[in-house]
Design goal:
The structure is a homodimer. Chain A contains six helices and five strands. By secondary structure, chain A is α/β, with parallel strands linked by helices. Chain A has a five-stranded mixed β-sheet with strand order 2-1-3-4-5. In chain A, strand 3, helix 4 and strand 4 form a beta-alpha-beta unit. Chains A and B meet through helix 3 and helix 4 of A and helix 2 and helix 3 of B.
Chain lengths: 147, 147
Amino acid sequence: MDTFFTDEYFMRIALSEAKEAYDKGEIPVGAIVVANNQIIAKSHNLTELLHDVTAHAEIQAISSAANYLNAKYLKNCTLFVTLEPCQMCAGALYWSQITKVVYGASDDKRGYKAIGGQLHPKTEVVYGVLEQECTALMKSFFENKRK
Amino acid sequence: MDTFFTDEYFMRIALSEAKEAYDKGEIPVGAIVVANNQIIAKSHNLTELLHDVTAHAEIQAISSAANYLNAKYLKNCTLFVTLEPCQMCAGALYWSQITKVVYGASDDKRGYKAIGGQLHPKTEVVYGVLEQECTALMKSFFENKRK
């Protein structure tokens, strides 16, 4: 079972969420929250549709997972997201004390590492999972936008 | 007119929102968004009630103001908040490109300045407005909690 539920397995589901955002003309970022190998939240970026800068995939996923758990701390949960979180989302993850964050592509301009943000010291971070696919989707989106 | 609508005037309204949070057992932070001297959003921290770490006063105020304006960028808007924004809220304010942020009390532990977060370079920042009252409300809350 453990070899089936790999980080790549779950990132592929986050990537399918990102593709849904892409199809709606949203910057293609997708996220899921997993607890005990069960997906308890799925979301994708909806900032354009909702006219709301806070509607990043991660913020929605954190709120949704907390609602599912009826608890504000996401203990024993992992967030999979296709792009490195920005400072806003890193801050939300910090407050959630989430156990693990896995992201695909790095964001050297607006990612929390570049800005100087922080995740919670207890949070394990893994990155570069399906990086090429996550990056390719973003590149395709911005190339199409420039056309 | 301009002498009536001072930063202190609006911060006092944010402070009344913070007191509403206090009365609900929430960490007492209140926020309002003002455009052309008109209040277009009012909110207070609801993280306990909603079991949601993203339910800070600022995040709710940003979403609410954007909903009112039907636009994701808060141009010509000012956010008044009783406490220095955390990195999550600073990130949301960054994305909103809000024109001005006014805060009361500083937060030397979890404020965006201590964490290393950033507001948008175009955003004007004013702080220390009704600082003593904003700080006193926070102190009273945590002193009561320890009892």
